[in-house]
Amino acid sequence: METSAHVIRVNVPLRWSDMDAYGHINNVEVIRMLEEARILAFGPPGGTGAHGIEPPVPLFNTVPPNTQSLVSEHRVKYLAPLEYRNVPADVDIWFSSVKGASLTISYLVSDPVTNKACIKAETTLAFVDAVTGALLRVTAEQRELCGRHTGTSVFA
Predict the structure, then answer these.
(1) How far apart are CA 119 and CA 137, in angstroms?
(2) What is d(CA 28, CA 107) in angstroms, rounded to the nearest whole number?
(3) pTM over 0.70
(4) Angstrom distance (rounded) from CA 52 to CA 55
(5) Cα–Cα distance list, 83 to 22, 88, 99, 112 (Å)
């Protein structure tokens, strides 16, 4: 993918244990990689972990206390095998949809040596009040943060 202004590129390390018997990154580990890419790009969900490096888009810093950031859907398409390398994979990430109460994040995972696109994926997230279980609306501040990094769905 040709990197655009709205795309955030993060580098997700590949672990030796991510590899399956065929020498490819296992499909279960791909979901973990998507999670790592989200954390690198948008920070850890509010109330989790200790303070670290500020992410490029501090989306999760904007959630109120007692808010959970929950995955409601994943969609993954494997374009080519992602083979284990001791070099982090390139992951381009952006928002492909911002709705009233959910965000959809698109990813393109590429081999770090060949630059070949190996995986395209999307994750839909919703913010939920941890006490009541109520779905929370995307705030104006969150929309503004997402707006600078919004593009077409990887499945369009």
Answers:
(1) 30
(2) 16
(3) yes
(4) 9
(5) 9, 11, 35, 10
d(CA 122, CA 105) in angstroms, rounded, equals 5
Q: Per the structure block, which two tokens stand in for 98?
A: 């911002």
In angstroms, the CA 95 to CA 142 distance is 11
Say which DSSP state 139 is in.
Answer: P
Give the tokens for residue 36.
Answer: 């790592």
Backbone torsion region of residue 5, taken as left when φ is above 0, otherwise alpha when ψ lies between -120 and 50, otherwise beta: alpha
How far is 9 from 22, CA to CA, in rounded Å? 27
pLDDT in tens, 92-146: 999 999 999 999 999 999 999 999 999 999 999 999 999 999 999 999 999 999 9
HSE, CB side, 13 Å, CA atoms: give it for residue 108. 20
